[in-house]
Amino acid sequence: MPSTVRAIASLTISFGLVAIPVKLYSATVSSERISFNLLRRKDGSRLKQQYIAANDGKVVERSEMTKGYEFAKDQYVMFSPEEIKSLEDTTTHSVDIGQFVPLESVDPVYFDGTYYLSPDKGGAKPYSLLATALRTSKQCAVGRWVSRGKEHIIVIRTIDDGLAMHQLHFAAEVRSIKELGVESSPVSAAELKLAEQLIRQLAAPKFDPREYTDEFHVRVEAAIQRKVQGQEVSLATAPAPEKGNVIDLMAALKASLDARGSKAGEAVERRVPKRAAIGARKRAGR
C-alpha cells in the first residue's frame, strides 16, 4: 500500500561514488500540537499582528521593512533582501557524507531536528546497502546539507528498517555546561549504593515513548470540548510539589526504595491469588 505521507523534498545522498536518491519526510506531526489564537476578550474577534516603529510609534507595513544588524547600542547596519540573498548558500538537493562515527559519540544536545528518509525511484538497492552497512558496523554517517540558504551538519542513522536524518547544531551554537560553574560534591559509598539500588528498581530494557502520555494535551483537549459544549472549565489545580533542599539524603533514598518496594509488593499480591490457587490444586491432586 503506498504511503499517504507527503515528502517535503527530494535529495541525493553521496556515499563515496554511490548516489542514493531519497525522499525527505518530517518525523514529527505538527498537527498534534494544540495552539491558541489571540482574541479580543469582549467579542472574540481575532487579533492581527502589527509592527510599530520604536522612534515614532507608527505602524510599519511589510513593504517598508528591511533587516539590520545591531553592531552597537541602537546602531544598525541595514541589508537589502538582495544583499542577504547573495550571502546565503544556494539550496542543494544533495547530502555529502564526509565521515562515519559511532552514534553514541554524538551528544544529543547537538540534535536540532529529525527527518525520515525513504528510497526514491532507483534508490532501493543503494538505500538498503547504506542502511545495512550502518547497522552492521554500528556507525552513523555525518555530512553536510544546505537548506533555505543555511548550511547544516547532519547525521544519518538506521531506525527500524529505514534511515533517519538528524539536523545538528554547530559547536558555536551550543553553550558549554562549564559556563554554569557546577561544582562536584562528595558522595559516600552508602549513598551511592542506595542510589544504584533505586536505579536498578526503575531500570527498563529500553526507552519506550508509548509509556508516556502528554497529560497537558489531554487536559486541554477535554477543556476545549467542555467549552465547545457550553460547559464551565474547572479552575482547580493540582498542588505544586514542595521545593527545598533535601535535609537527609540517606533518608530520602531509603524512603524512595521503600515506596518502590511497596508498589512492587502490591503488584505481586494482585498476582498471588491466582498462583496460590494453582498451587493449592496441585497439592490437592498429589
Note down, in words, how this protein is organized:
There is one protein chain. Helix 3 (189-202) crosses helix 5 (249-285). This protein is α+β, with helices and mostly antiparallel strands and 286 residues long. Among the domains are: 9-29 and 88-171, Beta Barrel (Ku70, Chain: A, Domain 2), CATH 2.40.290.10; 189-197 and 247-286. The protein contains five helices and eleven strands, in the order ββββββαββαβββααα. Helix content is 30%, strand content 26%.
CATH class of the domain at 9-29 and 88-171: Mainly Beta
Q: Please state the structural category.
A: alpha+beta
Average pLDDT score:
84
The helix/strand order is EEEEEEHEEHEEEHHH
Number of strands: 11
Q: What is the count of helical runs? A: 5
**CATH fold assignment of the domain at 9-29 and 88-171:** Ku70, Chain: A, Domain 2
Distance between the termini: 57 Å
Kindly summarize this structure in a few lines.
Helix content is 30%, strand content 26%. The chain has 286 residues and is of the alpha+beta class. The strands form three sheets. The protein has a seven-stranded mixed beta barrel with strand order 1-2-8-11-10-9-7.
